């Protein structure tokens, strides 16, 4: 575990540099699977990835979770990722559309899991952001989501109720995890994450061999 903190812009840049380094390293000999969430917390990091020297033609991008709305909807996680990073990469011919794997609301969760399996069935790098309650992707406290692959959620405590999310197992089995806690409203979640006796979903990332924490919150002495 490594904690990186500072002002938000500097932390976003450091996170992007780390992701760039990891992607380049892993892509030397094979294709790489990169999991990305939606939400405002990761937009700055994604924008900082635009001009990094990353072999995007060897990177496959999957969503960590998605709301069951059209991909063009304002609530779509993919739309946020697309506007923050993917549109730029496509426009500048840095990535092929075949390397981008959004969840299609018209298809089944099983099909999305099958698509991930084509590339090894796990994430090489998984970027996540914590909610105020310590949730990651659409894994919420007291909402069990065990099993392999992606899962359909029909009773999300946050709207919309219907979502698709990575399972707990997909989080645990990722090679490298990066989680962000941005904003004072995330302080309680960060404290719970760092506490020994806590079972918030964000702590699933601690099952990985390598994981990093990025935050703009100062640690209280």
Write the layout of secondary structure elements.
Blueprint: E1 2-5, H1 8-26, E2 32-36, H2 43-48, E3 59-63, E4 65-67, H3 77-91, E5 100-101, H4 109-117, E6 125-129, E7 150-153, E8 163-166, H5 168-172, E9 176-181, H6 187-194, E10 210-215
Parallel strand pairs: 1-10, 2-3, 2-6, 3-5, 6-9, 9-10
Antiparallel strand pairs: 4-8, 7-8
Number of domains: 1
Helix/strand-derived class? alpha/beta
The CATH architecture classification is 3-Layer(aba) Sandwich
Terminus-to-terminus distance: 19 Å
Mean pLDDT, to the nearest integer, reads 94
Helicity level, as a percent range?
25-40%
General shape: globular
Quickly name the level 1 CATH class: Alpha Beta
Largest sheet: 7 strands, parallel
Main sheet: strand order: 1-10-9-6-2-3-5
Keywords:
alpha/beta, Rossmann fold, 3-stranded antiparallel beta sheet, single chain, 28% helix, 7-stranded parallel beta sheet
């Amino acid at each position: 575990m490594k904690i990186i903190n500072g002002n938000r812009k500097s932390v976003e840049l450091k996170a992007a540099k780390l992701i760039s380094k990891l992607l380049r390293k892993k892509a030397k000999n094979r294709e790489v699977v990169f999991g990305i969430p939606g939400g405002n917390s990761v937009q700055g990091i994604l924008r900082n990835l635009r001009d990094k020297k990353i072999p995007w033609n060897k990177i496959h991008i999957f969503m960590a979770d998605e709301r069951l709305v059209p991909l063009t909807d304002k609530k779509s996680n993919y739309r946020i990722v697309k506007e923050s990073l993917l549109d730029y990469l496509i426009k500048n011919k840095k990535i092929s559309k075949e390397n981008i794997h959004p969840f299609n609301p018209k298809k089944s969760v099983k099909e999305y899991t099958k698509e991930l399996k084509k590339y090894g069935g796990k994430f090489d790098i998984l970027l996540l952001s914590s909610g105020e309650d310590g949730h990651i992707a659409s894994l919420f406290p007291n909402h069990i989501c065990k099993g392999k692959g992606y899962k359909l959620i029909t009773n999300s405590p946050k709207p919309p109720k219907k979502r698709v999310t990575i399972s707990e197992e997909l989080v645990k089995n990722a090679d490298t995890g990066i989680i962000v806690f941005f904003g004072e409203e995330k302080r309680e979640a960060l404290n719970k994450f760092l506490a020994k006796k806590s079972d918030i979903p964000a702590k699933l990332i601690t099952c990985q061999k390598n994981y990093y924490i990025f935050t703009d919150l100062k640690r209280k002495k």
